[in-house]
């Protein structure tokens, strides 16, 4: 029996330190909800999950861009629905002005309303959305994925010749009213095409938004499988390490006490 070197106590100390370290790691995983609390836990998994998280954040930003683009198009269509009503009324005034039973003074009254509606349409062409012109006619590049790829959203131009010609019409005479009717009908046809374009933009962007949502959900699930703690499994490990620490502490006390038996040999 030796007393200078207590191998049993040293072994118990080492095993207790290992159990304590595992208990601390298990406690950290349970408290943080992540099973990668330090890079050495899963170096490759940490790298993959970081890339996933970055892509998920970019997808969130992309979804916001797409949603704003949808709002932009919806605002366009809201204004164009008013243009449609105005053009309908202008075509009606063009027909009324061709009534042979109307006098020139009657037609002058129709012209006032016709001009007012034309000015209203011209004014709508200057509207913007958060500082971006709604009806400049320019295509807008909308970000549609986490890599920055874009979709060219077709623009609408309320200053196009079909509209400007129609809004400048004159129904104060029967001849002018006939010409104005032709121009307004051309503007209505152009508006129908433009609203269809906006509808196509909205449909495409809605589909893109749904696809982004599905991709974000799948990436979140993949990232979760790599880094998130399985609480049920980790709780079992925590209980195991807790028992080992308690047992190791008790055995270390016993190992330290065994050398005291050497005193009996010296008595």
What labels describe this entry?
267 residues, mainly alpha, two-stranded antiparallel sheet, 4 strands
What is the fold's blueprint, element by element?
Layout: H1 7-32, H2 43-96, H3 104-124, E1 128-129, E2 132-133, E3 140-143, E4 150-153, H4 161-167, H5 174-227, H6 231-258, H7 262-266
Helix pairs in contact: 1-6, 2-3, 2-5, 3-4, 4-5
Q: Overall pLDDT, averaged?
A: 89
Order of helices and strands: HHHEEEEHHHH
Low-confidence stretches: none
In the CATH hierarchy, what is the superfamily of the largest domain? f41 fragment of flagellin, N-terminal domain
Largest sheet: 2 strands, antiparallel
Structurally, the number of domains stands at 2
Strand percentage: under 5%
Total number of strands: 4
- Give the CATH class of the largest domain: Mainly Alpha
As for the CATH topology of the largest domain, it is: f41 fragment of flagellin, N-terminal domain
- Bin the helical content: over 70%
CATH architecture assignment name of the largest domain: Up-down Bundle
How far is the N terminus from the C terminus? 15 Å
Determine Rg (CA atoms, Å).
39 Å
Structural class: mainly alpha
Strand order of the largest sheet: 1-2
Which of globular, elongated, flat, extended, rod-shaped describes the shape? rod-shaped
Count of individual helical segments: 7
């Amino acid at each position: 029996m030796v007393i200078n070197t207590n191998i049993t106590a040293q072994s118990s100390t080492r095993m207790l330190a290992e159990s304590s370290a595992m208990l601390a790691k298990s406690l950290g995983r349970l408290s943080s909800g992540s099973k990668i609390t330090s890079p050495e836990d899963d170096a490759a998994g940490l790298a993959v999950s970081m890339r996933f998280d970055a892509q998920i954040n970019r997808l969130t930003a992309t979804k916001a861009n797409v949603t704003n683009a949808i709002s932009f198009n919806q605002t366009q269509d809201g204004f164009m629905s008013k243009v449609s009503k105005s053009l309908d009324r202008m075509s009606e005034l063009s027909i009324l002005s061709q009534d042979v039973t109307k006098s020139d003074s009657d037609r002058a009254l129709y012209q006032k309303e016709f001009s007012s509606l034309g000015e209203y349409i011209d004014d709508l062409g200057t509207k913007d959305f958060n500082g971006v012109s709604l009806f400049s006619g320019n295509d807008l590049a909308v970000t549609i994925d986490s890599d920055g790829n874009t979709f060219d959203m077709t623009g609408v131009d309320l200053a196009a010749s079909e509209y400007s010609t129609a809004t400048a019409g004159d129904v104060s005479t029967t001849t002018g009213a006939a010409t104005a009717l032709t121009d307004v009908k051309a503007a209505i046809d152009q508006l129908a095409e433009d609203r269809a374009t906006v509808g196509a933009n909205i449909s495409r962007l809605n589909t893109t938004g749904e696809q982004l949502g599905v991709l974000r959900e799948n990436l979140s699930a993949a990232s979760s499988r790599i880094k998130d703690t399985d609480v049920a499994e980790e709780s079992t490990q925590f209980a195991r390490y807790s028992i080992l620490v308690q047992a190791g502490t008790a055995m270390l006390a016993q190992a330290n006490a065994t050398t005291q038996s050497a005193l009996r040999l010296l008595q």
